[in-house]
Amino acid sequence: MSAHCCHADTPTGKPIPPSYRRALWIALVVNFGMFLVEMIGGWGAGSASLLADAVDFFGDAANYALSLFVLSLGLAWRARTALLKGLSMGAYGLYVLVQAVWNGWHGVLPEAGTMTAIGALALIANVSVATLLYTYRGGDANMRSVWLCSRNDAIGNLAILLAAAGVFGTGSGWPDLLVAVVMAGLGLSAAQQVVRQARAELREVATQPLHSH
Ligand SMILES: [Zn+2]
């Protein structure tokens, strides 16, 4: 999972073809829906790794929203939106770490069955969205970026299933916490990259106000 992997490649300044726009809308709804499902499921099942996987769905949903609404607004607004996205992802990643520590401290035993069901649903959602976007890809989208993005997301979903098996097998919450901490760490470093790039773009806009577009 990486914050910059699942962006939709839409060339700036050109209108998005209607079929691709519809595919982006579906991708946005599915990713935001899965963010909510994993967040609520993570709370309900006491699973920090489900909460951690939700950060990728949030980041991807933000990217699709960015492609649909913000790309045409120019560099300054794109950078500001990206900065907001990076900061939200970072805050959420920190929250997941705190929740993981809390769960570990209180010896919470996650529900392996719920983790397995939601992890499998997340895998199906990611593969479906990747297939959809690849089918209706617009402009510059290439097979490699779709493949890399889906592969990383699928690895995250498989890690949830592995953690669920570990929780079931050991009767302890540690496999869940281990996966949660690794995924939250990856989410935080991705958030940091997003913030750094957005700041650089904002500096660029500030120093060259007449040449930005
Ligand atoms: Zn992703």
Structural overview:
This protein has 213 residues and is mainly alpha-helical. The protein has one domain: Alpha-lytic protease prodomain-like, CATH 1.20.1510. It is 79% helix and 0% strand. The protein contains 6 helices and no strands. Helix 2 runs antiparallel to helix 3, helix 3 runs antiparallel to helix 6 and helix 4 packs antiparallel against helix 5. The longest helix is centred in the last third of the chain and has 34 residues. It starts with 17 loop residues before the first helix and ends in a 6-residue tail after the last helix. The site of zinc ion has 7 residues, from helix 2 and helix 5.
CATH class: Mainly Alpha
Bound molecules: zinc ion
The helix/strand class is mainly alpha
Beta content comes to: under 5%
Shape: globular
SSE string: HHHHHH
Give the mean pLDDT.
Answer: 85
Quickly count the domains.
1
CATH topology: Alpha-lytic protease prodomain-like
Give start-end ranges of low-pLDDT stretches: none
Number of helices: 6
Largest sheet: none
Rounded radius of gyration (Å) = 18 Å
Percent helix range = over 70%
Task: Tell me the distance between the termini.
Answer: 31 Å
> What is the CATH architecture term?
Up-down Bundle
Number-wise, the strands total: 0
